[in-house]
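Model it.
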Amino acid sequence: MLRLALFGSLLVAPAAAPAASLVIGSGLARECYEAAERERANAATVETCSRSLAEEALGFDDQAATYVNRGILRARLGDRTGAIGDYDRAIGMRPDAGDAYLNKGGVLLLEGKFAAARALFDAALARATSRPELAHFGRAVAAESVGDLGRAYADYRRAAELAPRWDCPRQELARFSVRKRG
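Modeled.
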């Protein structure tokens, strides 16, 4: 459960924030992106995202990105159902949106749905998420939660390689002792 709490803290930690989806230009969609990117989750920023989706003539990519960004804000506010709904909308619009899979995987991991979370982290990596270190870290937490320590170690290690200044994977690796079989 400690690993789940740690991953939950990643949903709000500046050093390892979820993957916000860039929106080009100005307007409400851009404000929504900036709120997700800068960890400014509150009812007003969620409403900004909702207004963008309802009122702005967004291109297909910006609309999908706005769903991801609103999902991030909702997840940070504890609205997991709303967040998952937003990630699903983004995935339905853009099946190649790696960051939507990554963020949805994080929510499912917090709900204890380890196999489903791992599948989403795999999908995020296959679709070139902008935060592969988080996908590997999430996979490691999921693997460790079901007792697959070999996979957990490998993914913590990969997360540490991808983000050498990020302390969390190194701290997790320090708990392992590796011995050769022989």
